[in-house]
Amino acid sequence: MATEPLQSTAERTTERLRSVLHNLKGYAGITEDQNNLMGFAFIAPNILVFSLFLLGPVLFAFYVSFQEWSILAGAGEWTGIGNYVDVLEPLPISYVDGSLQWRPEVFMDPSTSLWWYSLKNTFVYAIGTVPLQIFGGLAVALMLDKRVRLKKAYRAAYFMPVMLSGAASAVMWRWFLAGDGVINGILPTFLEHNWAGDPGTALGGVMLMAIWGGIGSNMIFFLAGLQNIPEELYEAARIDGASRWHRFRHVTWPSLGNTNFFVFVMAIISAFQVFGIALVFSQGGPVYATTTTVLLIYQRAFEEGAFGEGAAMAFLLFLLIFAFSYYQYRYREETEVDY
Amino acid sequence: MTDDSRNNGSTRRRVIAGLGAVGAAGVLAGCTSGGGGGQNDNSETSGDDSGGGQSTTEGTPTPVSADLTLSGWAANNEESALLDELVSNFNDENDGITVEYNAIQSKYKQKLRTQLGAGNAPDVFYVDSGYFSSFADADVLLPLDDLAAADSFNTDDFFQPLLDAFRHDGTLYGIPKDFSTLGLFHNTAMFEEADVGVPETWSELSDALSALDANVSNENFKAPMIEYANGRAWWAFLYQNGGQVLSDDGSEAVFASDSGVEALEFLVGLKEDGLLAVPSDLGSGWHGAALASGEVATAVLGPWGLPFLEGYENNPDINENVDIAHLPTPSDGERATIAYTVSYSASANTSSAAGSKELIRSLTSDEGMAQWARKGLALSARKSHSELDYYDEHPRRRTLLEAGEWSHPFSFGPNSEAIANRIRPQLEAAMLGEKSPSDALSTAQEKINSEVL
């Protein structure tokens, strides 16, 4: 009698496992009778390297994020969610007098919480750079997709920043934007300013650099996308009397859907991960003005040796990027148009 | 296992000859202390070594056989060539020991730390005083007290602040390889033009800078003095004014004291009066370049600025015009400067404690250190070397060397980097006028006391 419920529990578990497996196969596009051995064999080398050098370290970092980890001792002490609490406190939303209160000052003062401040810097950076990188790239691609004299030279010129190392561009832009720099040489005297050395404008300098670099790389993707739009669509539109704007709005733009999606997701991800140019341009300064989230992670983990806290920050950032990418993906699925 | 290791310990560790019994004791210690044993057993060995076991590091050298690796960063090609030469001389003179020099080219601290954690660190390596304590605190370094105790080594000759920088809980884990202090670099031609003498006090300094500002005619001249936006000179001014970064027992940050605030107010005052420019105001990114190009007349800088001035081809005269004085002090203050120093230390996991110590002894001995110092990038950590002919020919370096006596190493215990990372942006906030000096320092102090210590 006593074993009966146990048995049925076991059966139910097995049943549930089967259905999960079935669903998983469904997600992966595998039908029950399919023989996937060959496929797995082909991707095995990649999976192996990926697991060893990417997935492994990522899982390990997750483990480290719950510890006070000493890399010198190669061991740590469990702190539970202590690192996450340390990073997130004080929360920008707090429960005071029976109601939730929004505390924007948490984002504004680096001495209150460097995490939220760096996140604010990163958002400002993303909002300021992503649209300009994308629409700038698209505009340049549209211009250089036509018959233009010296088209190739222009394309090469716009692509040049992409080929430069981030560190080299950062050093260059620091010179441009210094008190004694080229930019001030061009500007009228009353606008002259130490752009790189002022906490109010330094992040703008980093953003300018990112836009300058981002336009070139997005241009390449948009150029490739434009080549893929069948000429017949334009022809048909012209016959229907569509104006230039209408041709762009109803032919070019929807046909670039895939490119847009790719470029947008990549731009968001790389904006959230901005690190190298901020490090070289200003080491996160002046006064934390260019301390982005990844730069803060680097300082905590690799400069100060607080690997647990650094790992916790890295996972919080991952969650954020994941959420953005996921919703972008879902949104696209809903709005996708097939021709 | 104990019996086996009594016989095999020597070959297994490649150490020994004459340390057999001690080796076994080391292995025993390793067994009892579990996981950390690998790191401890050699230090146990060395402990017995100095305790007058069968051999000592003094007197007739014990035949040691070992294959060692030595790592450091290479500041320049000349320096790594010299280290190669020193190592090859060492190999010739020491029959049983073979040393291989492997420079780590970039991200030295990060790589070394990873290697130490993974247990495959070099045997002997450079350790900067800035992160020394975090290494010593994690028990990854070999104690070197017995090496220092040897009469022939003469540790009294070392500048004591530098030696102290490599002590942790009373144990010495590193011998200073060299050091750099900050001094007052100044352009004598500009000082003459402005008719001012070398300032010895803070008020003389601000007077001199005002005079320079008014009178220097050099067309490149932009400001009397350069300092980083994060006010590096403040650290020296703090000590001069009787302040400290941490309390004596290291448990509390105390730099936001009146002395600290006053020191920062002095520096910020110079900036507000337009007497001091930060690199982003100028065309030059650092002090050496700003001095060389004539953009500024003064800078608080270390000996690493000298090779740049000596080799500055755009204006070869500049080198003769730049002299170095000790930092000006408050009128009732004390002499003090910051020292940046680097040690030779050995891994607690070294394959041969005796061999590693022998290598460190050789590199930091009277002669080894003198050869190194003659390269001129950093200063000899031995006081008696101020008598070297080399320093007769390089009086500017002698000035910086003398300051070793009253120097304070840039090191604040196991959390040095976290502490410096929280202070610097606040100094910057004060220098750039975003916060008052006392606000800035209190914020940093509060952060450090609540988050770090």
Q: Would you identify the regions of chain B where 5 or more consecutive residues have pLDDT less than 50?
A: 1-60
CATH classification class of the domain at 107-335 in chain A:
Mainly Alpha
Shape of chain A: globular
Reading side by side through the largest sheet of chain A, how are the strands ordered? 1-2
* Mean pLDDT figure of chain B: 83
Oligomer: heterodimer
CATH class of the largest domain in chain B: Alpha Beta
Low-confidence stretches of chain A: none
Number of E-type strands of chain A:
4
Number of H- or I-type helical stretches of chain A = 15
Q: Quick check: average pLDDT of chain A?
A: 87
CATH fold label of the largest domain in chain B: D-Maltodextrin-Binding Protein, domain 2
Distance between the termini of chain B: 43 Å
Largest sheet of chain B: 6 strands, mixed
Distance between the first and last residues' Cα of chain A: 63 Å
- Shape by Cα distribution of chain B: globular
**What is the helical fraction of chain B, as a range of percent?**
40-55%
Helix content of chain A: 55-70%
Rg of chain B: 24 Å
Kindly give the count of domains of chain B: 2
- CATH architecture tag of the largest domain in chain B: 3-Layer(aba) Sandwich
